[in-house]
Design goal:
Radius of gyration: 20 Å
Strand order of the largest sheet: 2-1-3-4-11-10-5-6-9
Strand content: 15-25%
Helix content: 40-55%
Oligomer: single chain
């Protein structure tokens, strides 16, 4: 690295990264487990009902919530789900699971779920394929903080409600070097990832979780939860799915209810690409 301008860029980046870390420490995040008073399990009469029931029961047991079960088989299924869920804090809903989703280029979860996701006021867990150990899955949530950036505290608080009392809570942060990086969290400008070293990209992925991880570590003993940090560099959706498939966690991500929003499309692609349940927290 002989170019003096390159030296200046990396020196500036180092200073800004240090400032980013300092800002996270100066403005600590307030984090408490979300209150979950009632869990709703929606059945549709398919072979997914058993998995929905097991996951919803595990979530209710871990949060101390009541469990309500409801079978939806009407023509107006979306309206029926929304009406049934009105009084409940967390929903578990079957999502059609076909191994050929990617092969056929499907972009829709189902007409019913596409509509529900644009209107849901509550966190909704979309249940995909069978889960080997539903209780273990529920008590080991993984929050994709890059997807849930605008909702990452709420998403983490809900994950914490599921993990506390002996579970793990993983924070997953990924920097995609193929995408322009907007450092609005601190400096409000764009960087070309090709200017950054792998070490710098990894440092940025770690820094993005700084406040949340610090809050989790402060309360870990009181909540009896084991925080985990997973910081990676790569294609956002691919790395999230790979990390979740390898670990078998409950994936937790943000949900923008505008279906045209990039984060809504990314959340949908995570659901389509996952055989494991995906818990979406709406804005």
């Amino acid at each position: 690295m002989n170019d003096p301008h390159e030296h200046e860029l990396h020196d500036e980046l180092a200073r800004e990264m240090a400032g980013f870390e300092a800002a996270r420490v100066t403005h600590p995040i307030k984090l408490e487990p979300a209150t979950v008073g009632s869990v709703l399990a929606i059945y549709d009469g398919t072979d997914q009902d058993a998995t929905v029931r097991a996951l919803a029961a595990a979530a209710a047991a871990r949060t101390g919530a009541g469990l309500t079960e409801c079978t939806i088989d009407t023509a107006d299924a979306a309206d029926a789900i929304l009406e049934a869920g009105r009084a409940h804090d967390l929903w578990f809903v079957p999502c059609p699971y076909r191994l050929d989703y990617t092969a056929i280029g499907a972009a829709s979860l189902s007409p019913t779920l596409d509509l529900v996701l644009t209107r849901t006021p509550r966190p909704i867990c979309l249940v995909r394929g069978p889960v080997d150990d539903p209780e273990l899955c529920i008590q080991r949530p993984m929050v994709a903080v890059d997807v849930a950036r605008h909702r990452k505290v709420d998403a983490t608080a809900l994950a914490l409600a599921l993990a506390r009392g002996g579970g793990w809570l993983a924070l997953l942060s990924i920097v995609d070097p193929s995408a322009e990086i907007h450092r609005a969290e601190l400096v409000g400008r764009y960087l070309d990832p090709s200017d950054l070293s792998p070490e710098s990209l990894g440092g940025l992925a770690t820094a993005r979780t700084g406040g949340l991880l610090a809050a989790l570590q402060r309360g870990a003993d009181a909540w009896d939860v084991a925080p985990r940090l997973i910081a990676q560099v790569g294609s956002l959706a691919d790395e999230i799915l790979r990390a979740n498939t390898e670990r078998g966690y409950l994936l937790v991500a943000g949900l923008d209810r505008d279906p045209k929003h990039a984060s809504a499309q990314l959340a949908r692609s995570l659901v389509l690409g996952s055989s494991l349940p995906v818990l979406l927290v709406p804005n």
